[in-house]
């Protein structure tokens, strides 16, 4: 062996260090706005462990080759995940009166976006709070998404405001939970109301603002729900409307590719908002069911079953997490990432249950769902 036989190995080691370091740096740089430090650390650790495995278990040639390939893939992925600058990009958010839409408006305003937010009541406390707390970049509009005339009016106003800068993103967030009860007990008016707001309203907004997004080659971000894929007891009206929105988003994603418009779908797990309503509203919904259900069906279920099942479910909803940050990170990534994901599952539970229903036998999912999702007593006729 010549005195300089170590030089090729040293060169390979140097190239490997450069590749690995560049991959880690690019990944950290591309994710620093949307991913938490533990995720970046986990990615770095996995890359280091893979490198250690390659060089400890394989020859220098194959170890260097495989590790370099992984670094190149990581670099390519990181490049596609780079974040665009905010630069005052204009976004529209529906359902800003309260809950997620209200908090998301403040969040994006603080980041420097120009925010147009539609509210159900322009004179209500939620709208007034946004006017006081947000910067002058945020504009509040009266926009009931079940009212085509209001949508058209807001579209015209926003088109006038963004004619030079363009509208970058539309976030279809507005939604309602509807009445909770067994599907057989729900009046048809509840199904129609959920579809009007959660599905037809989002479609109406999408169609109205598509011309503005076509100019900017921007994004639609549709906030659906885990319930759009995962069946949940007592949520038949809500699940059905969110499933319709989920499928609509998938179809539009394919159809709008030719225009350079990206469609992003978000399936959050449960977050605590006021969507569940108050005790007074629960009583009203209960009375509506009692007035519309036939006597024989009511006899089979029993009044006690109706209240004990639905009220317990509402109370469990009120125990959901109040931290919206996982959802906000996904929304921001969908808005600014050069190559955003088609689907985001905000909250660990959402991803786990989607995997459960997608990859396991139906019997397994049904067993878990019946044990976990809002357990309730049996109807009167079955006790």
DSSP summary, beta strand count: 7
Poorly predicted runs = 1-6, 32-39
Rg from alpha-carbon coordinates:
25 Å
| Overall morphology | globular
What can be said about the biggest beta sheet? 7 strands, parallel
Mean pLDDT over the residues: 84
- Note the beta-strand portion: 5-15%
Q: What's the number of helices?
A: 14
Would you kindly provide a written description of the structure presented here, covering whatever features stand out?
With 383 residues, the chain is an alpha/beta fold. The protein contains 14 helices and seven strands. It has a seven-stranded parallel sheet, with helices on both faces. Helix 1 runs parallel beside helix 3 and helix 6 runs parallel beside helix 7. It is globular, with a radius of gyration of 25 Å. It starts with 5 loop residues before the first helix and ends in an 11-residue tail after the last helix. The N terminus is likely disordered.
């Amino acid at each position: 062996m010549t005195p300089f036989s170590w030089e090729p190995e040293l060169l390979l080691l140097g190239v490997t260090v450069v590749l690995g370091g560049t991959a880690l740096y690019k990944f950290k740089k591309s994710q620093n706005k949307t991913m938490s430090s533990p995720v970046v650390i986990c990615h770095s650790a996995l890359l280091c462990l893979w490198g250690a495995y390659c060089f400890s278990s394989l020859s220098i040639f194959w170890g260097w080759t495989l590790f370099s390939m992984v670094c190149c893939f990581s670099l390519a992925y990181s490049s596609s995940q780079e974040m665009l600058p905010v630069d005052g990009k204009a976004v529209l958010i529906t359902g800003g009166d309260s809950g997620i839409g209200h908090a998301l408006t403040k969040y994006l305003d603080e980041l420097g976006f120009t925010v147009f937010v539609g509210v159900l009541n322009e004179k209500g406390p939620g709208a007034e709070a946004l006017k006081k707390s947000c910067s002058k970049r945020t504009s509040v509009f009266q926009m009931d998404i079940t009212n085509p005339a209001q949508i058209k009016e807001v579209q015209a106003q926003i088109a006038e405001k963004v004619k030079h800068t363009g509208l970058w993103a539309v976030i279809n967030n507005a939604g309602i939970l509807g009445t909770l009860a067994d599907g057989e007990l729900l009046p048809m008016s509840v199904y129609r109301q959920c579809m009007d707001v959660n599905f037809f309203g989002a479609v109406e907004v999408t169609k109205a603002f598509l011309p503005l997004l076509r100019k900017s080659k921007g994004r639609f971000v549709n906030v659906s729900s885990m319930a759009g894929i995962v069946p949940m007891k007592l949520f038949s009206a809500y699940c059905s409307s969110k499933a319709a929105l989920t499928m609509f988003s998938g179809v539009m994603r394919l159809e709008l590719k030719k225009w350079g418009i990206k469609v992003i779908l978000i399936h959050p797990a449960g977050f605590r908002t006021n969507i569940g309503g108050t005790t007074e509203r629960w009583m009203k919904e209960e009375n509506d069911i009692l007035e519309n259900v036939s006597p024989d069906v009511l006899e089979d279920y029993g009044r006690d079953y109706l209240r004990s099942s639905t009220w317990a479910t509402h109370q469990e909803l009120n125990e959901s997490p109040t931290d919206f940050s996982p959802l906000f990170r996904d929304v921001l990534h969908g808005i600014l990432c050069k190559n955003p994901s088609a689907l985001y599952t905000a909250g660990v539970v959402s991803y786990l249950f989607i995997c459960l229903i997608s990859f396991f036998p139906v019997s397994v999912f049904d067993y878990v769902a019946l044990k976990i999702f809002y357990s309730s007593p049996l109807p009167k006729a079955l006790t």
